[in-house]
Amino acid sequence: MTARQTLTPNIDPKALARSLSGFNLIDGQLVPASSSDTFAVCNPATGLEIARVPASGRSEVDQAVRAAVRAQVDWAAMPARKRGNLVGECARLLAAHVEELGRLVALETGKALRTESRVEASIVADALQFYGGVASELKGESVPFSPEMLTITTREPIGVVGVIIPWNAPMMLMALKIAPALVAGNCVVVKSAEEAPLAVLRVCQILNQLLPAGVLNIVSGFGPECGGPLVAHPAVGKITFTGSVETGRIVARAAGEKLIPATLELGGKSPMIVMHDADLDKAVAGAIAGMRFTRQGQSCTAASRIFVHESLHDEFVAKVKAKVDLMKMGDPLDEATDIGTIISRAQYDKVCGYIEHGKAASGAEPVECSALPGDAALRDGLFVRPVIFTGLSNESRLAREEIFGPVTCVIKFSNYEDALAAANDSDYGLAATIWTTNLKTALDASRRLQAGFVQINQNIVVQPGLSYGGVKQSGLGREASLEAMLDHFTHKKTVIFNMQ
């Protein structure tokens, strides 16, 4: 089956999943894996299998990389603005598929369609549109080295880029990687997440209606057998990875052995500080949005440590609970659903383990919110009630380790300096927020919080155009911005003309 035919949007996610079952996308075509090995993709709301995808290995990775190598020369030679226009056209093409992509990613990830999946699908086109529009910024400089010589710098693509993406926001995070890579003149091979390979495959299939064959390829498979060979492939000149710290270290070591650049967007334990003078209702809304409860807390920027001034603590917890109690947990494809499911049985067990550990901790007071769905068809679904823990310190496991579930610790404080020190007392440094009406406090916290993405009185997710990335063990490099394209997807070359 060819991926380059004109595609009609299909809003039946189960039928669309079946049509994609068994395929990678290599050299502009949907192709089955070279071996018969496949694995199941299941709907986490029901536990039922919706598709099988290739368990790709070294052979499929090599096939995809070779296709990218063949396409690289012509793609890099294309004028940057023309590449940008083409990527912008891809964005407009995707706009017609937002509904089908939202439904498909809801089916495979369990993220609620209305509150999460449809929103993610719209951001994909936005990311491509943004990067398509800044293609003209791929420019060099004139260097005043010597009056007798003309010295300039140019920016050139790295070559073939390997992209490894996670399952929590697969389409959005893929778009924020492939868009700058493509506009900068690189060809791309994507390794999808095992739990969520279908929507990203469909995105690549849609884009391949316009992109030259081999420019964008995607394979499915497991980390050691598929991701490992992609990082190690001698023709891959750059890796960009989003995932756990543990896997990030493996990727970094492998890239280091090859001496190739790697961008790593890893974990987070993002603090939220609510000062005594904060607008309480805004802070409560920010906590609910920031904890990504509608995504079951499966976000690296989740506000999973909330430091609240003692004068507001009890009222803050009560108001958060009251609002989360009104949120409906249910079928991700139901428009009435606010909260979907955990992605997989393994993640479900991990989250539940943390909750049980927290309940057993001395002084802990778990506040459970919302209600599990009563629909018998969802009895095997991976639903977890959001839990707010009070009474725990910043030294507890729940406050120090990334849970990636709907669990947050609300920790009482009386002194600003203590709250700031506790917020920074973490191995992570991805995101942070502070809620205050005092400009001096806001400015001080924005300077001193050890995080790459700091917000005051709001808690929005990453957006195209805003530089995004962490410090400490939250990763290396930046994404989502112009600097990400220039610094991480091009080489700078110095050229000196001496015509005397």
Describe the structure in your own words:
The structure is a single chain. By secondary structure, the protein is an alpha/beta fold. It contains 16 helices and 20 strands. The chain has helices spanning 13-20, 58-77, 80-95, 98-109, 113-133, 170-183, 198-207, 223-232, 245-258, 280-290, 313-325, 345-360, 397-400, 416-424, 439-448, 482-488; strands at residues 23-26, 29-32, 38-42, 49-54, 142-143, 150-157, 160-164, 187-191, 216-219, 236-242, 262-265, 271-274, 305-309, 365-368, 387-390, 407-413, 431-435, 453-456, 475-476, 490-497. The strands form five sheets. It has a seven-stranded mixed beta sheet, sandwiched between helices. A six-stranded mixed beta sheet has the order 9-8-7-10-11-19, sandwiched between helices. Helix 7 (198-207) links the parallel strand 8 and strand 9 (216-219). Helix 5 packs parallel to helix 6. The longest helix has 21 residues, at 113-133. It starts with 12 loop residues before the first helix and ends with a strand. The model has no long low-confidence stretch (mean pLDDT 97).
Tell me briefly what this model is.
The protein is of the alpha/beta class and 500 residues long. It contains 16 helices and 20 strands. The strands form 5 sheets. A 7-stranded mixed beta sheet has the order 14-15-16-13-12-17-18, with helices on both faces. It has a 6-stranded mixed beta sheet with strand order 9-8-7-10-11-19, with helices on both faces. The chain has a 3-stranded antiparallel beta sheet with strand order 5-6-20.
